[in-house]
Amino acid sequence: MKTGMIAIWAAAAALSAGAALAEGPPAGLRPAQVAGPGLNVIDLEGQKAWYMDKLGMTVTDTIRREGKPYEYVMGFGGGAGQPIIALLQSPQRPPGPNAYGRVILAAPNAKGLADWLRMRGVESREVIPNVAYFIRDPEGNAIELYTAPAKP
Questions:
Q1: What are the tens digits of pLDDT across the range 29-85?
Q2: Which of 23, 46, 58, 130 lies 20 to 30 Å from 91, alpha-carbon distance?
Q3: Average pLDDT over residues 88-115
């Protein structure tokens, strides 16, 4: 009986502690959403041009250092609070993809976009037919084109 009571007490204490941890910061300090990833890039201007030409993104902000751009905030023109990708000049970064999984872009028709990009020289890999396709930017960073499956 004592062992059972100890187990119940321990479980209650763990749940209570978990609830306190899950509350997070006060509402006025809590982030509202994930804005998007920041990619360290070797060729800042080349990457900016690729994201504009291939994905239709626009520059929503330019951060300058010593009068020259060193970071572009890219988006789809939705204004403040919309998802972004930040491209940061980092010539010391080793070649190849950044060390994270992938950028996921919601697309109304992932297959159609993958096909359109393929006709423009961007290789794609089908992961889930009509739902998810992987492409890579010129520096090898993985991008998933994703269309949520239709609900039955």
A1: 787 777 788 999 999 999 999 999 999 999 999 999 999 999 999 999 877 778 889
A2: 58
A3: 88
In angstroms, the CA 138 to CA 61 distance is 22
67 sits in the region (left: phi over 0; alpha: psi -120 to 50; else beta) called left
Q: Which amino acid is at 19?
A: A
Closest to 53 measured CA to CA, from 128, 109, 137, 134: 137
Under 8 Å between Cβ of 111 and 129: yes
Q: What is the chain's mean pLDDT, rounded?
A: 83
**Residue 5: which of 102, 125, 13 has the closest Cα?**
13
CA distances from 86 to 36, 40, 111 (A): 8, 8, 25
**pTM for the structure as a whole:** 0.72
CA distance 85 to 55: 12
Question: Per DSSP, what are the bridge partners of residue 125?
Answer: 134
Determine contact, residues 146/107, Cβ cutoff 8 Å: yes
* Predicted local confidence at residue 63, as pLDDT: 92
**CATH architecture of the domain covering 38-146:** Roll (3.10)
Return the domain boundaries, the chain. 38-146
